[in-house]
Amino acid sequence: MYNDNPTLEGVKKQDEKRQGEVFFRQQPQSQPVYPAGTRRFYIESYGCQMNFSDSEIVASVLSEVGFAPTKIMEESDLILINTCSIRERAEDTVRKRLKVFNKQKKARPGTKIGVLGCMAERLKAKLLDEEKLVDLVVGPDAYRDLPGLVETADEGDKGVNVILSREETYSNIAPMRLDSNGVSAFISIMRGCDNMCSFCVVPFTRGRERSRDAFSIVAEATDLYEKGYREVTLLGQNVDSYKWENPETKDTVNFAHLLEMVALVHPDLRIRFSTSHPKDITDEVLYTMKKYENICKYIHLPVQSGNSRVLELMNRTYTREWYKERVEAIYRIMPECAISSDVITGFCTETEEEHRDTLSMIDFAKYSMSYMFFYSERPGTLAARKYEDDVPLKVKKRRLAEVIEVQQRVSLAHNLADVGKTFKVLIEGDSKRSAEDFKGRNTQNKMLIFPKKPGLKPGDYCTVRVNDASSATLKGEIV
Ligand code: SAH
Ligand code: SF4
Ligand code: F3S
User: Fold this and answer.
1) Which residue's CA is minimally distant from atom 1 of ligand 2?
2) In whole angstroms, what separates CA 292 from the centre of its chain?
3) What is d(CA 335, CA 298) in angstroms, rounded to the nearest whole number?
4) Percent of the chain at pLDDT above 70?
5) What is the average per-residue pLDDT within 171-199?
6) Whole-number Cα distances in Å, 436 to 331, 429, 439, 451, 454
7) What is the pLDDT, as a whole number, of residue 179?
8) Which residue is closest in CA terms to ligand 3's atom 3?
9) Per-residue confidence (pLDDT) for residue 394, from 0 to 100
10) What is the CATH superfamily name and number for domain 184-416?
11) Domain 422-478 listed as CATH 2.40.50.140
């Protein structure tokens, strides 16, 4: 889901395989024929799934005014980069890419460069001082304004809009699916975050939390199903606090209701969602998941730390005990459910003993996988203002390595337990290694690789028996 931590090569490789948790650059499908005079845009996306989903909104807005997507940077008139600020590394990656874009701009005068997303929002017009060749700086709530901003840039000025909104959800914009496998798609259900975890920059870059019209979400899911898609992932920073009031009936739709509405679109349309916040995930949501076979039995439930004192400093508003109770509730209500997590090591003042609480939590929760990071102080956040970033980098990294080691052991055990079992799998496409094999995921979000059978194609379901497992994938055959 995040692509800024090159030290975690092994973990990245593991996660690369989990489609939906996209790590790498996403580039639009090239369009073979461009009508005369058509301008082309090229877009790269970094960061979380929300950003990838936003890039599809951006593509849609630009196509309305006659821009066509291209995968080839060298032939584009407008180069866009949708950026992430979550850790320092994420921003470093963006700056490196900007150097490459600047070269291209010099080679092809007239090319415009735009910085979108969280880094645009965090740095605002300051970015223009630092990056002289950038023409556009556009925050996550200002994408409707892109055509006008491009015009401003065409006239030789800088186009800047970083105004955050309390209402914008882009609910009436049909995303242009970029680099899609035609089987699974993201649907953004809310924007922003009101949680103020002390380490996190998202509330500053994405603004206040707001939920999108439930009916527009169902309409988007229905449209995707009709176009042949078989899996949608509902996206938000904290999906469990989804809340939308129907302006006519005044009824409120919570996340459990929304899940049910989307599950009813069609039994063959799989529903996933991300991210759940441990303080907000309700039993109502868990029972709704249990009730519908097509709601996948997989929950991304980031713990961040296994220690209550650290959690309090992080302002996560739950304790170790609370988190464990939520994990127990999940396994009690859906014994087959897989849980994954995000972990931060070396947060301000974290001791060795407190770090060991995180290690033991991985064993307790039996995560199928985790995204693991060492703490990176972000300017302006609560932690940056209140606490000293006092754990030495070396210690942060060593603790991270320990967390990765424990998680890999737990992931392997999780996967080995699946050997001999059969799963319903949604075929996503050819496996990366061989065109003779398909890849697809089971309800627990685990990737399975298995030899093709005639008559089956991506988007079909099949039953696969697992006969081999590594910590990253399951291998099997269709039965
Ligand atoms: N909304 C989600 C997470 C969004 S950010 C949630 O609440 O769980 C994705 C992940 O990046 C976080 O879960 C956290 O593990 C990590 N992260 C966020 N800020 C970070 C920082 N300053 N340093 C290191 N990791 C961070
Ligand atoms: Fe950041 Fe916390 Fe909001 Fe997640 S819930 S986006 S970690 S502030
Ligand atoms: Fe990064 Fe912004 Fe997502 S900071 S993780 S792209 S919300």
Assistant:
1) 200
2) 24
3) 11
4) 92
5) 95
6) 36, 11, 10, 6, 11
7) 83
8) 48
9) 98
10) tm_1862 like domain (3.80.30.20)
11) yes
Q: Is the minimum distance from the CB of 48 to ligand 3 under 6 angstroms?
A: yes
Separation of alpha carbons 176 and 54, rounded Å: 10
CA of 86 to the centre of ligand 1 (A): 7
Query: pLDDT tens for residues 423-459?
Result: 999 999 999 999 999 999 999 999 999 999 999 999 9
User: pLDDT digit string (tens) for 349-398?
Assistant: 999 999 999 999 999 999 999 999 999 999 999 999 999 999 999 999 99
Q: How would residue 212 be classed by pLDDT, with cut points 50, 70 and 90?
A: very high
* Span from the CA of 332 to the centroid of ligand 3 (angstroms): 33
C-alpha angle with apex 75: 125 to 5, nearest 5 degrees? Answer: 55
pLDDT at 33: 52
Cα(427) to centroid of ligand 3, in Å? Answer: 29
Mean pLDDT of the chain: 92
Determine how β-strand 210-211 pairs with β-strand 190-191: antiparallel
Residue spans per domain, the chain: 21-161, 184-416, 422-478
Rg (CA), the chain: 22
Instruction: For residue 420, give the DSSP letter.
Output: T
Res 12 pLDDT > 60: no
Domain 21-161 class, CATH top level:
alpha beta
Q: List C-alpha distances in Å: 237 to 50, 56, 244, 391.
A: 8, 18, 16, 27
81 touches ligand 3 (CB under 6 Å): no
Is 303 in contact with 316 (CB distance < 8 Å)?
no
Give the pLDDT of residue 22: 30
Question: Is ligand 2 within 6 A of the CB of residue 192?
Answer: no
- Give 397 Cα–ligand 1 centroid separation in angstroms: 16
Across 105-246, the runs of DSSP E, i.e. the strands, are 112-117, 136-138, 159-161, 184-188, 190-191, 210-211, 231-235, 243-245
Distances (CA, A) of 124 to 128, 151, 424: 8, 19, 47
List all residues 6 or more positions away from 49 whose beta carbon is below 8 Å from its beta carbon: 1, 20, 21, 22, 186, 233, 235, 274
Q: What gap in Å lies between CA 310 and CA 321, rounded to an integer?
A: 13
